[in-house]
Amino acid sequence: MTIPLLPLAACCAMIAAGVTLLLERSLVRALTGVIVLGNGVNLLIVTTGGAPGGPPILGVTPPAAMADPLPQAMVLTAIVITLGVTAFLLAVVHRSWQLTGSDEVQDDTEDRRVRLRARRGELSDAVRRRRDAYRRLVIEQRAELANLEAEQAERERLEEADLERRIDRVHIELERWMRDRRLEGMSEEELHRYFEEAGRREDAAAADNVLRIEELRDEHAHRREAQATRERELRRRLRSRQRETRRQMRTAIREERARQALAEDPELKGED
Predict the structure, then answer these.
(1) Which residue ranges traverse the bilayer (predicted)?
(2) Structural domain of 209
């Protein structure tokens, strides 16, 4: 079976025009779209219904030469349905013109109210999510600062414990040496004189030790200053990120309120 292209193209054009008119807000255009769409579908059914033939009556037309009666019955039924829909839409257009003086379909007030409530719910959810994210950011940064402070305190405690162990070890060695000298028969005067001679011999070394101690103190002060600088930098970044997060949250709230204001219906002012 060969389908003619010209009727098929006319069907496609009529169906497209009918669908486009149905999407308009004007009831008159919607009525025209129903009529055009119905005629286009009827023409499509007749075009694709098969080759022409004789009347489908037994004894009058041979079975091989009969036309298919189903497309014709479907088209007749569709014509009746289209006529009923057309009459209904005409009544609706006439009543709308009497009540409002226009055939434009207005937005339903309840639909707009539901949409506004949904937008308010979305705004609340967005604000809640941003506040939760901000709280999590603050908690994480505070935990990071607490970890840094704990590490610094632990490092200082370990240094103090190591210094105390060294001092205790020196005292123990000194007591052991003095006890050994006493067992060997050395008197207290000799021990005292020995300490004085050792002190004079180690004056130069003591000066070097003082310089070394000063260097260690300077190094320790530098480390503490570097640690304090890192903590100040971390706190500055924390405050900067907090300000940026608050600014983004306020911007999002303002944008959402602006979109909500654009979508408001004047009839809904004063309602929640």
Answers:
(1) 6-23, 30-53, 73-93
(2) 121-268
